[in-house]
Amino acid sequence: MIEYKTAENSIELQLIIDLQAINLPSNISEEELKQQGFVTVKHDLDLLTRMNSPYGHIIAKDGDKIAGYALVMLKDFADEVPVLFTMFERINLLEYKGEKLGNTQYFVMGQVCVAKEYRSQGVFAGLYQHMKTCMSPHFDYIVTQISSRNTRSKRAHEKVGFETIKTYKDDHDDWEIVLWDWE
User: Fold this and answer.
1) Which single residue of 70, 103, 126, 142 has CA 20 to 30 Å from 62?
2) Does residue 15 sit in helix, strand or coil?
3) What's the CA gap between 6 and 61, in Å, rounded?
């Protein structure tokens, strides 16, 4: 049975890193990348540990295995992952409901991933629902960006309740910035 909870120790954080590594584009085929989706950023244990406080990452556990995770990334970590710096700049300047997001209470979904054997079983939605339960008392919005090539992720985020608020192209990819409004 799947249990949704916050990551509490270095063993659980290492399980996140292990699942992340399996789903990096460099470790999956082009066909799997298109059909199953992928994660873009590789985190290390130190960064993941620091990101886990004061709000813990959400994990789906099946016994001692991890079925999936959803990482909490506060604005304070904008400079910690160079590839995400531009994303934070863009998000902060975007207007939503007549206000710049940089002036609102939002956080970034640092990454979400479901293990292959748990896909299409509601784990993705379960992670986000548990995250909303834990985080909505403190934040109005959750924001993230998705590669336009990652059609599985785009569909899954839309199904949960995210809406696209900006699309843009950089030197590497086409991106969609998506937001889930909890107000």
Assistant:
1) 142
2) helix
3) 10
Give the HSE-up count for residue 147: Cα atoms under 13 Å, Cβ half-sphere. 17
pLDDT in tens, 122-132: 999 999 999 99
Which residue carries 């960064």 as its tokens? 47
Query: Angle between the 123-135 and 151-160 helix axes, to the nearest 10 degrees?
Result: 50
CATH for 115? 3.40.630.30
Counted domains in the chain: 1
Give the sign of the dihedral formed by CA 39, CA 42, CA 48, CA 54: negative
Cβ neighbors of 88 (< 8 A, separation 6 or more) are 75, 78, 108
124 by Cβ neighbours in 10 Å (0-12 / 13-18 / 19+) ranks as buried
Token reading at 8: 């509490």
Could you tell me the residue range of the domain that residue 63 belongs to? 2-181
pLDDT tier at 161, thresholds 50, 70, 90:
very high
